[in-house]
Amino acid sequence: MARPRAHDETLRTRLLDRAGELLSAHGPEGLSLRRLAADVGTSTTAVYSLFGGKPGLVRELYVEGFQRLCARMERVSRTGDAAQDLTALGHAYRDSALANRHFYSIMFGHAVPDFTPDEQAWEQALRSIEPLREAIAKGIEAGELIDADPAEVVFAAWALVHGLVSLELSGSAPVEDEGSARYERALRNGFAGWRR
């Protein structure tokens, strides 16, 4: 009979979520492994066992944030209508950011100045926008979007969505009861320039 794992996926996820919260609220100085372990009700040995130390924990925060984003983006059903698909992907991006805002500073904000993602972590980050690339490539092939370099359209679409979400997360967006409706209007109007 196999021995049960001492440190399971549930504990790993709890540690990553709490580490992201500590990093977002207090910066890298607030991300103490001892405090993290105490907050989650485990030992520093568990943290070291799962992540190998603080650099490994920071790397896993980065990867986890992009894995969650990627999972949301991949769950978006394709309709075959480029504008509708791009808007749905934009909503998935926003939903992921709002649900996982505590990962956002490590994913995009250089929350830990000396952290540089390794090649494997960087590939995970790039995978998260693959659904966007696919939707844009199909839209161009189908003649729904202008005949442009797909990479240029991907960059513009991502910049629009990321900018809107960043403003919302930082509290810089106008406060309205209809945040989702305002976001959708901005997406549709922004993407309209790429339609044929």
UniProtKB/TrEMBL annotation:
Residues 32-51 bind DNA. GO terms for molecular function: DNA-binding transcription factor activity; transcription cis-regulatory region binding. Pfam families: TetR_C_33, TetR_N. The keyword Transcription applies. Keywords: DNA-binding, Transcription, Transcription regulation. Residues 9-69 form the HTH tetR-type domain. The keyword Transcription applies. Gene3D superfamilies: Tetracycline Repressor, domain 2. This is TetR/AcrR family transcriptional regulator.
